[in-house]
Amino acid sequence: MNITFCCADTRPEPWLEGLRAALPGATVSEWQVGAPQADHAVVWSPPQQFLDEQPGLKGLFNIGAGVDALLRLRLPPGVEVVRLDDAGMSVQMAEYVCHAVIRHFREFDGYEADMARGRWSFRKPRMRAEFPVGVMGLGVLGQRVARALRHFEFPVHGWSRTPKAVADVVCHAGAQGLDEFLASCRVLVNLLPLTPDTRDILNRRTLSRLQPGGYVINVARGAHLVDDDLLALLDSGHLAGATLDVFRTEPLPKEHVFWQHPKITLTPHTSARTLREESIAQIAGKIRALERGEPIAGVVDRVRGY
Ligand code: NDP
Ligand code: OXD
Prior knowledge:
By secondary structure, the protein is an alpha/beta fold. The chain has helices at residues 12-22, 48-53, 68-71, 89-105, 108-116, 140-151, 174-183, 204-208, 227-236, 276-291; strands spanning 2-7, 27-30, 40-44, 59-62, 80-82, 133-136, 156-160, 170-173, 187-190, 214-218, 239-244, 264-266.
């Protein structure tokens, strides 16, 4: 069995060694132009030429959870596109989102500024019941985040395409459930995949429906958010702030207004990193299962887009 590796911005050697150790007997190599046909590929942002030269692939394993960039390419017709299914990302996402929600709710940013100025002062405790959190996307990451937020006793709402039941989370579904979901939330966490249905979904209309003093946490994709609409609602005071991990252009261009905005906290697409060992173990297990003809989790529905 031949495995080819074609991942942009990723040092190949540790992945190649890890895949060789996990799949003894397989030939694992980094893709080069004109390389022989492989059975499976491990990819991140591959060039179109790679896909054009590998028409016989059985499995295309993305080393991330989001496949939006991959699905924009012309893919071999019969290949199974497989995304990372947690692989150590959900706990990181839960940490990141809980940190952002709690930092805002407890006003730790304000305390940091006070202490830096040598100011010993207290703020009035806020009521948790007045900070309902909404999680858009109740998949692998969204459900883990929703459960983690419940641990801190925030009221939690969730929104997904199809109806879901998550313990202690008020679940809403579909386009018809969106407005009610938004109106129920003060803090909005985006964990949707980027698809034609979800592009630009965080816009003036939807964000205006959040409760006054709303707060936005975008950890999914930059193209979900209409930047100017967020800025307008921050300026009007309807939104109190935002924590953004993902951007339309990454790295975020130096001149972008987000960098200096006093109500926006930024991180460089780092809320849930791909963990190499977990990912290799998961991908190797799935390659073995596919070779045995068994079903696997995390296969992308190309029409749905996730
Ligand atoms: P999943 O596929 O497991 O979950 C996606 C969820 O979104 C599902 O609940 C799905 O609904 C819902 N959804 C999809 N389309 C719609 C729609 N049109 N309307 C309402 N709900 C919709 O994905 P993951 O949880 O694994 O990952 C989510 C995203 O997080 C990734 O696609 C990626 O973009 C992003 N991500 C970001 C990272 C970062 O570091 N910033 C790291 C990892 C991922 P249903 O359940 O009904 O199908
Ligand atoms: C992912 C990401 O999709 O890193 O996994 O954004």
